[in-house]
Design brief:
single chain, 480 residues, alpha+beta, 4-stranded antiparallel sheet, 62% helix, elongated
Length: 480
């Protein structure tokens, strides 16, 4: 017996030594996070006490119609619903990994029959066995059983716990992914809403321009009859009038498409979008505080998602490496077994039990385990690059938008001055045209320049509002 135990111990030791030669994982270091600049640019020092990304979206947006649209989108948006199901899937993955840490116990009953040859050791034994005086063993021999079976993999290397921790990190990353979808959704609704208001205002401008062209056409016809203008002037004004009417239909189509984009984000069929277009040009963008770059790491859900995925991938590598180690499984059964149902109740004779411990590890042909480890190792490196890319893009995104906010404000001011000057020039040109002191080309050019300036001013207001929304999202706002 002692010799047998020595053999078993030797075999177990050789098994452990042979299977524990696991390859080393690639050591990765996150240098991007450590090298994030203190400020977004040299001119701006940031404000560590303020960051617009921490402002809840209900406080950031003050237009009640826009708030209603955002609330509808958060309830009905299909992409958000898909993301929520991904969270449920990840949550189930955590439960599945957690379940492997506990024994698997099952209950069952069975019935069978067997017939062995008479001239075999088993058949000869059955023939000479008497369960009761004068009663031989039945032939064929039945088998009735019922009881409990338990299987348990002992987590001696903490591989199962590592897999569970990786699943938890992945679950948390899906939660941050949901927050990022929320942030993007709110930004999209707001941007499209401001674009719709801009189209409404451009439609009003083109309609006013059409009326202006109609009056200019009438004046040119009167002047032609008075020999103060030519047929060429009449045709030029007719062409300009037709062009402005065509532009009006183009804008109307843009409004329809923009309304349906918003309805799609809200997860509903086409319907009118309630809005107050008259207040658009007087809207004042929210003041945005950028804070310091390091706050991005705490506020932006996409960065936190990438960080959690990196953590999950590192744990996956650790778990894959432990596949090279031997595993210890314990199996146990306890129940009743007899060749006749009536004998099942005869205790303790009908009781049956077993307890088996198995230590097994890979020795030959480890290619599948090696491939699994190499895949996990490559994925952790990939996750690091993804994390670094997310941090870099977030920093550059905010830096670009900060510059855009300043430049678009100056652009809007200058466009306002241009529009006022051209509106005054229109009145002057029309007066000179009536008095035959200016030709039709001067009137047309002034009107076209004024129209273009007004259209560009509306676009500048829309970009001004949308840029503030974009930087709000880029700072990690919109999901709280």
């Amino acid at each position: 017996m002692k010799i047998y135990n020595k053999y078993v111990a030797a075999i177990a030791l050789s098994l452990i030594l042979a299977s524990c030669k696991a390859p080393m994982a690639t050591v990765i270091k996150d240098e991007m996070k450590e090298n994030v600049p203190q400020n977004f640019n040299q001119e701006d020092q940031g404000d560590a006490n303020n960051n617009s990304g921490t402002t809840p979206w209900r406080q950031f947006f003050t237009d009640p119609n826009l708030v209603t649209l955002i609330e509808t989108a958060l309830k009905n948006n299909q992409e958000l619903m898909i993301t929520l199901q991904e969270i449920e899937i990840a949550k189930s993955g955590v439960l599945a990994k957690k379940g492997r840490l506990t024994p698997n116990v099952s209950a069952g009953i069975g019935e069978g029959v067997s017939k062995v040859g008479r001239y075999t050791s088993e058949g000869a034994g059955d023939a000479t066995t008497e369960i009761e005086p004068g009663k031989e063993m039945p032939d064929p021999l039945g088998n009735f059983e019922g009881g409990l079976t338990a299987n348990w993999e002992i987590d001696i290397w903490k591989q199962l716990r590592t897999e569970k921790d990786a699943a938890v990190a992945h679950y948390l990353s899906t939660v941050e992914g949901k927050n990022f979808v929320l942030s993007n959704l709110i930004e999209e609704v707001a941007d499209n809403y401001y674009e719709l208001l801009a189209l409404d205002n451009q439609l009003d401008i083109i309609q006013q321009y059409t009326k202006l062209q109609q009056r200019a056409l009438e004046i040119s016809k009167i002047q032609k009859e008075a020999a103060a203008a030519t047929e060429l002037a009449v045709k030029k004004f007719e062409a300009e009038l037709a062009k402005s009417k065509a532009t009006e239909y183009n804008i109307r189509q843009g409004i329809t498409e923009k309304e349906n984009e918003i309805n799609a984000l809200c997860g509903r069929f086409p319907q009118p979008i309630v809005r107050s277009k008259g207040d658009f040009m007087s809207m004042i963008p929210q003041t945005v505080y950028t804070g310091i770059p390091s706050q991005l790491l705490a506020n932006r859900p996409d960065i936190k998602q990438a960080e959690l995925e990196l953590k999950s991938s590192k744990l996956d590598v650790e778990a894959a490496r432990k596949e090279f180690y031997p595993s210890l499984e314990i199996s146990a059964t306890l129940g009743l077994e007899a060749f006749k149902p009536s004998y099942l109740v005869k205790l303790p004779e009908s009781m049956a039990a077993s307890l088996v411990g198995e230590l097994a590890g890979p020795l030959i042909n480890k290619s599948a385990i090696k491939a699994n480890f190499q895949t996990a190792d490559a994925r952790q490196i990939q996750a690091l690059y993804e994390y670094d890319k997310t941090i870099l893009n977030a920093y550059l995104d905010v830096a670009n938008l900060m510059s855009k906010v300043k430049n678009i404000d100056q652009y809007y001011k200058l466009k306002s001055e241009e529009t006022k000057a051209l509106e005054q020039s229109i009145d002057i040109a029309n007066q000179l045209f009536k008095n035959s002191r200016a030709d039709y080309l001067e009137v047309l050019l002034n009107q076209r320049d004024a129209l273009d300036a007004k259209m560009e001013l509306v676009e500048a207001k829309q970009k001004q509002l949308s840029t503030v929304v974009d930087i709000y999202k880029s700072l990690g706002g919109g999901w709280k």
